[in-house]
Amino acid sequence: MATFSAARPAPQSPAREAGRHDRLFYGGMATALGLTVFAGFAATYYLRFFAGGPEATLTGGPFTTLVHLHGALFTSWVVLFIVQTILVARHRVAMHRRLGVAGAVLAAAMVVAGTLMAIATAARGSAPAGMDPLAFLAIPIFDMVLFTTFITAALALRRDKEAHKRLMLLAYVSIVVAAVGRLPGVLPLGPPAIFGLSFLFVVVGGIYDFLSRRRVHKVYLWGGALFVASAPVRLAISGTGAWRALAEMLTR
User: What pLDDT score was predicted for residue 131?
Assistant: First the structure.
């Protein structure tokens, strides 16, 4: 008597199975980050376009052309990030890659505008209450350094989708610090709270990795370590004579 065995489909790998949920997770993260940016800058920027909106920036400066350029570029990043996650969710990979070129150009423009904005603010003598403007300049400058680092790595590893999407998320988190610091009641708590709340986005990413893949991707490990280490490093550097000399040269 012939014996027949039913063919069974090969089990999927945990990573492949987890990929089904990635589109929902990263779409949710893009939305959460976008809402954080809006909530942080609503009172000091976005609401100025409506009656009764703010007449000056958080630091008391005027709404110059540079301020609006900076706002337009960083808002474009928020929108583009959401659009890119939607394209991936709908399997529009070709369009996602074409927009990635525009994203690289936008990121470069953001670094230039963000750096100029930070220098102009320090040159005007503006900073959060209780902080020296030249010392505070180290914080946004390091934001740009981290953003550039993560974006460059993401572009270099664009063919490695697992590393690429995590690096793009880290790049976003590195610049969301400014929005988090503007959330109601956060700024008086100081840098530890601002950076700590921002880092929660990375923590959530690591938790999702562990639950879905039983391990945390190395990008979150070294990228998260770099982000955490940058906070005390920039605060330490900001008080040195060498940094003050550099800051004076930049703002002159």
Answer: 84
Burial class (CB in 10 A: 0-12, 13-18, 19+), 192: exposed
Q: Which two tokens stand for residue 154?
A: 């993401």
Once rounded to an integer, what is the mean pLDDT over residues 136-165? 94
- The rounded Cα 38 to chain-centroid distance in angstroms is 13
Residue 16 burial (CB count, 10 A): 9
List the one residue out of 177, 183, 182 whose CA is nearest residue 141: 177
pLDDT given for residue 5 in this prediction:
44
Please give the model's pTM, rounded to 2 decimal places. 0.87
Residue 154: its H or E element: helix 138-156
Burial of 86 (0-12, 13-18, 19+ CB in 10 A): middle
Sequence letter at residue 79:
V
Instruction: Provide DSSP, 67-112.
Output: HHHHHHHHHHHHHHHHHHHHHHHTT-HHHHHHHHHHHHHHHHHHHH
Inter-residue contact 73 to 14 (CB < 8 Å): no
Residue 7 binned pLDDT confidence (cut-offs 50, 70, 90): very low
Please tell me the distance from the alpha carbon of residue 127 to that of residue 134, in angstroms, as a whole number: 9
3-state secondary structure of 124: coil
Tens of pLDDT along 170-207?
999 999 999 999 898 898 888 889 999 999 999 999 99
Question: At residue 114, does pLDDT exceed 90?
Answer: yes
Using CA atoms of 216, 220, 222, 225 in order, give the dihedral in degrees to the nearest 10: -110
Measured at the CA of 111, the angle between CA 107 and CA 239, to 5 degrees, comes to: 145
